[in-house]
Amino acid sequence: MRPDDRFDVTVALDYYAPYVSGLTETARMIAEGLAARGLRIAVACSRHDRSLPPYEVIAGVHVFRAPVLARIRKGVLSPGLPALVARLAARSAVLHIHLPMPEAVAVAALTRRVPLVATHHIDAFLPAGPVNDIGMRLADASAGAAIRRAALVVVNSDDQARGSRLWPLLRRRPTLAVPAPCADRGGGRPALRDGSGTHIGFLGRIADEKGIEYLIRAFRTIDDPAARLLVGGDYEGVAGGSNIGLLRAEAAGDPRVRFLGLLQGDRIRDFYASIDVFALPSIAESFGIVQVEAMMAGIPSVTTDLPGGRFPVQATGFGRVVPPRDPAALRRAVLELAALPAEARELGRKKANELFGLESCVDAYETALRAVIAGRTPAGATGQG
Q: Where is the Glycosyltransferase subfamily 4-like N-terminal domain (predicted)?
C-alpha cells in the first residue's frame, strides 16, 4: 500500500477469487459491483493458493492476501490476516466482514474505530463428532463477536436468520435481509445434454454438506436408461476436502451419472441449458445461489427443508421443498418437476428474475453501507440495536 491509499470499503474474508463457493462468489460479485459504481474497494483475505500474488487488482477490486501458515479442516491458519484487515480498515470508511470467519473475533477487536457491517452467510458446518462440535462452537463464538460489534448485520433472508444458531444474538442487532447476488445464466447451449431422457443437475462444491449422495441414491432408482444426472462442481480444491470418493462409490459405475468438475464462464450457461430440473439436496444451506440461477434460466429447483435454503423456492413457487436426507422424496420431486410444461417454466423464470438479481443486491448493499458510513441504520433493518 502507498501511504496515501484510501478506500471506501474494506472487505474481510478467508477465501476470495479465484476460489469458488457461495460465500466467496457473493463477496466477489458485491465487491466488483460496488467498484463498477466508482467506490474504492479493498479485499483482505488469505493467500490460500501459494501461486496467487500477495496483491493484485481484479475487476477494479484491490485484493490483498495474507500468508497461510497451516490448514485446519475447512479453514486456513493465517496469523497475519487480522492485522492486514486492521491496516486496510484504518484507511477505509467502513469494514465489511463475511461470516463465518475464524479470525472474526480478532478482526472485531482490532478495528473498533471503524464502522462494521457483517454479512452472516451461514452457521459453520462440520460433520458430527466431539472435535468438530468444539470447532463449531468456537466458530459461533467468533462470529458472535463480530455480530455484537456490527452496526448492521446482513442475512440472506429472515428465514435464514430465524433458523440460525445465532438467532438469539441476531434478533437483538440491526439486521437487514438482502438475498445473495444471482447472475443471469440464461442463453446457454444444451452442450452437456445426452439424448432425450430426463436430465437432472447439481452444481456446487462437492462437499459433505451438499448431500449429493442422497441425490445419487434417488437418481439410481430411476429406471430410464436415457436419464442423466449431471454433477458439476469443484472436487479438487475444496477447503476441508471433497467427498468425491464417496460419491463415486454411490454411483457404482452407473454411466448415467456424470461428474463434470469445475464449470466456469459459458460452461455454466450450457449446464443450465442442458438440464430439465435442478436439485440442491443439501444438509446445510442458507440460500443456494445456484438454485436461483437455475430458476432465473427457467429450470425449477428441488431443495431441502432448511432455514434459508428453502426460501428461494418458497418465494417463487418454482420448485419443491423436500426433507433432507430423503432419496425417495427427492426422486418424486425431480420427476414431477421434470414434466413441468413450458408455460409454468416461463412464469417461474419471470418470478425469479423479479425477486433476485445482481443489480438489486448491489443496490441494497450500496445503500446500506452508505447509511452505516453516515452513522444511520438503513431503512428496513429489524432488531433492537
A: 22-179
